[in-house]
């Protein structure tokens, strides 16, 4: 083979190699584009607004789950469980502050120790007239078998035999007085007070036949003859009970 032939074959191989290299570079440029070398990798890519919204949604979902876990669970019918019931007394009612045993005992003793209408007698004593005033003792006597107590004002009205009222009930005069303890057979009294006829221009009431009385602290009534007691001057008072009998 001649030298010319060898040189020509070597030139063709070099040219072919150059063409292959140029073709490879062209393919690389088509795939990556002109900015492929300068574009940052996906690992270092910045977080987009869409990614942020997704992240917030995930956090909200997590917060809702935590809130749901913190809230009390609803019952099957959709209602929340009711609050624990208050402690109840043995009778089924909520426990309330009740009086002490000492207070209850004192109240019971006071009620049982009071003089009842059924255990007493009642009478109107002789009148005491002086300086334009008239006073009548209203006497209570313990006819029971045990001691009892009275304290305060009796309720007093005047009535006729047919039961019709005369005037108005007596008003209270003076202080409430001490506790009066009556042994069987002992008496206490309150004073009824009015004015003499002519002392005042206020007309006198009709004459009464009966005195209608509620003993102090009692809801049971008693009656006794009024001996024609007549209220004048519009004045009709009663005092609290005191120990002893007058008239």
Please provide the count of β strands: 13
Give the class-level CATH name of the domain at 120-243. Mainly Beta
The number of helical segments is 3
Largest sheet: 7 strands, mixed
Distance between the termini: 182 Å
CATH topology group of the domain at 120-243: Immunoglobulin-like
| Percentage of residues in DSSP E strands | 15-25%
Supply the helix-strand structural class. Answer: alpha+beta
- Characterize the overall form: globular
Helix content estimate: 25-40%
Give me the Rg, rounded.
Answer: 57 Å
List low-pLDDT spans: 1-8, 21-109
H and E order:
HHHEEEEEEEEEEEEE
Mean pLDDT comes to 72
Indicate the CATH architecture of the domain at 120-243: Sandwich
Question: What does this entry look like structurally?
Answer:
By secondary structure, the chain is of the alpha+beta class. The protein has a domain of 124 residues: Sandwich (Immunoglobulin-like), CATH 2.60.40. 26% of the residues lie in helices and 22% in strands. It contains three helices and 13 strands; from the N terminus they run αααβββββββββββββ. The strands form three sheets. Strands 1, 2, 3, 7, 9, 12 and 13 form a seven-stranded mixed β-sheet that branches. A four-stranded antiparallel β-sheet has the order 6-5-10-11, with no helix packed on it. The longest helix is centred in the first third of the chain and has 30 residues. The protein is globular. The N terminus is likely disordered.
